[in-house]
Design a protein that fits this description.
heterodimer, A: about 140 residues, B: about 190 residues, about 0% strand
């Protein structure tokens, strides 16, 4: 089955998020109050390792498992409003729930059934964005 | 010997593993690391309506992502239930003092049980935190074109200015809610 590798990678990601307490509302509060290095360390070292990996992939033009060249499409920066307005709205949600999308699923998995509510609300938010995007400034 | 399974992991172990997921997904099938797209794929699969944003082949584009997210849920089950850390989180004393100042008393779990419970869902606070909060996570992530994984981690790793802008904005939003809104609703 072709998808097992993605399932296993997801399990690894969810497990690490949970073990490092990245899914904790308390840890997110600690971050937004600048009271510990923990969350900055997690995000900062993840970015550092990701950056080095991508530079290696680009420099040596590495190929994927199937032998196809790895391509990473750049993000459009000709319009900026969406990143600022959408980003701030996302930040509101991140602080309220103490979780971004990955942690929401890991929290539900950890047995906190109440997190089905923010997940359904996030689906509703995604749907409303899809329905209204033509009239939103981007 | 298996203490590491139940003990919390330090940032310098967790961060690099998360960073390595970026090249792992690229190697496995040229996939971009990102979680919030799964919400769009779910909308496209379950309730696309006549909305152009949800008219695409979600199976070929997003099946891997939905399965990846299912894995995240299982990872949370293993890490937070099977190998649950029996101790409370070692939060900084300053954070505990601040949150006690907001009226929280239970610091034993991953999240404050006084806030995230079925019985608190009907209160104004519960609606704001869980329903409005969740809504904004979904709405804002799609509006900004990605969430913490897609922008703050994989986008910045790829040196994208759009992602730096998004991540700074995420943070501004979080600071506003933490420092200006929370004192009003707790």
């Amino acid at each position: 089955m072709n998808y097992i590798k993605y399932l296993m990678t997801g399990v690894l990601f969810g497990f690490v998020l949970t073990k490092a307490e990245v899914i904790s509302w308390f840890r997110i509060q600690e971050m937004f109050r600048f009271q510990d290095i923990h969350m900055y360390g997690v995000i900062g070292s993840a970015v550092l390792v990701g950056m080095i990996s991508i530079q290696i992939i680009k420099r040596f033009k590495l190929k994927d498992k199937e032998g196809n060249p790895i391509s990473i499409p750049p993000k459009d920066f000709t319009t900026k409003k969406r990143y600022i307005i959408g980003g701030i709205l996302f930040g509101f949600g991140w602080a309220f729930t103490g979780a971004c999308p990955g942690p929401l699923f890991a929290l539900l998995g950890s047995g906190l059934t109440i997190f089905v509510v923010p997940i359904l609300a996030a689906l509703a938010g995604t749907w409303v964005y899809g329905a209204t995007r033509e009239s939103l400034p981007h | 010997m298996f203490d590491w399974l139940t003990q919390p992991w330090p940032w310098y172990v967790a961060g690099p593993i998360i960073g390595l997921i970026i090249p792992l997904l690229l190697y496995m099938g040229n996939k971009q690391f990102g979680i919030s797209s799964s919400l769009r794929h779910t909308c496209a699969a379950c309730m696309p309506g006549n909305i152009p944003f949800f008219q695409y082949d979600w199976k070929s584009e997003g099946m891997w992502n939905l399965i990846f997210v299912l894995g995240v849920l299982i990872g949370g089950f293993l890490g937070g239930y099977i190998f649950q850390n029996p101790e409370p989180i070692a939060l900084s004393a300053a954070t505990i003092a601040d949150l006690q100042g907001l009226g929280l008393t239970d610091f034993s779990g991953l999240v404050p049980s006084e806030v995230f419970s079925w019985s608190n869902l009907g209160s104004a606070q519960g609606l704001l935190v869980m329903v409005l909060g969740g809504f904004l996570v979904g709405f804002g992530a799609r509006y900004a074109g990605g969430c913490t994984s897609g922008h703050a981690i994989s986008g910045i790793s790829n040196l994208q200015l759009a992602s730096v802008t998004a991540a700074v904005s995420f943070f501004i939003g979080g600071l506003i809610v933490t420092h200006l809104i929370f004192p009003l609703i707790f």
